[in-house]
Specification:
The chain has about 290 residues and is of the alpha/beta class. Helix content is about 45%, strand content about 25%. Helix 1 (about 5-15) crosses helix 2, helix 1 (about 5-15) crosses helix 4 and helix 2 packs across helix 3 (about 30-45). The longest helix has 25 residues, at about 60-85.
């Protein structure tokens, strides 16, 4: 079987007329180009290049190989484009995709020219899409350590209690967890992992909290809280604008630290040259 790297070096010498020029073009030493050509000659059992006057030119056998070599390189480029030409696909848990990923993705697209298609939905579905090969990268609110994948903790997100500015707690900075038992607690998307975080932070009392209804999304929760229908627990990054504008108030639970680790997950054997690897690196450095 012919080595495409060797073929590329051979074609470069034919086009540029010297090992030195070919090495400069491909970013390697002339001796490396010479070694590639010699290995290619061994593979085809024929001399391929010869020195004539001031240039290195293909031999009779080299002239036969040259158009085929060009075709091999072109086919290899088409193969790579066919695999990665549909851009990069990211599956994201809803709050991450809506409130955290858009700026890093935009910066990555501008810097690389690689288009990114983002699917946003429940955490477990985002992970399932990655496992089925329908996404190259997943951004998750919780991670279950399933085999075959690598997960990187991207950032730690604080959780806060939100109320309307007219709520009885609105002038306070913190409340006791016991006080939450008497309030209608509005839930957003099921399966986001918030209940698990609460149990870890405040213990079994978290099981006594009553969620009056699940509204399906953080945006719906924010509107319901603003309308005075109850309180909720959300990631602080999801309500920064509303807090700044005075539409919502954020409080802490006394003597408890509520946070979520946000995970970026890829396939375990992801090549370093894959667009997903470059995207993972870019997102990891953004707002980490």
């Amino acid at each position: 079987m012919l080595n495409l790297i060797h073929v590329r070096s051979f074609v470069a010498v034919c086009d540029l007329g010297s090992y030195r020029s070919a090495g400069r073009e491909l970013g390697v030493s002339p001796s490396t180009i010479l070694d590639h050509v010699r290995q290619l000659e061994e593979a085809v059992a024929a001399p391929l290049l010869a020195r004539r006057s001031a240039r290195t030119l293909p031999t009779r056998q080299g002239e036969k190989l040259l158009p085929l070599g060009r075709a091999l390189l072109a086919t290899a480029m088409r193969a790579c484009a066919a695999v990665s030409g549909d851009g990069l696909k990211i599956a994201s848990a809803s709050n991450i995709g809506i409130y955290m990923l858009q700026e890093p993705i935009s910066a990555f697209e501008s810097a690389t020219g690689i288009g990114v298609e983002t699917w946003i939905g429940p955490n477990h579905e985002a992970l399932d899409r990655l496992e089925r090969g329908e996404a190259d990268l997943a951004a998750l609110e919780w991670w279950d350590n399933r085999p075959g994948f690598e997960a990187v903790a991207w950032r730690r997100e604080e959780l806060v209690v939100i109320t309307s500015p007219f709520h009885q707690w609105a002038t306070r900075e913190a409340i006791d967890v016991q006080e939450l038992l008497a309030e209608p607690l509005l839930g957003g998307e099921r399966g986001s992992g918030t209940a698990r975080v609460l149990r870890q932070a405040v213990g079994s009392i978290a099981d006594q909290l009553r969620v009056s209804e699940h509204l399906g999304s953080t945006e719906a929760v924010k509107m319901a809280v603003r309308a005075g229908r109850g309180v909720s627990i959300v990631m602080k990054s999801a309500v920064l604008d509303e807090i700044e504008q005075g539409h919502l108030v954020a409080l802490h639970i006394a003597h408890a630290k509520l946070y979520k680790d946000i995970w970026l997950v890829t396939h375990e054997r992801l090549p370093k040259t894959a667009p997903a690897a470059a995207c993972l690196s870019a997102i990891s450095q953004a707002l980490g």
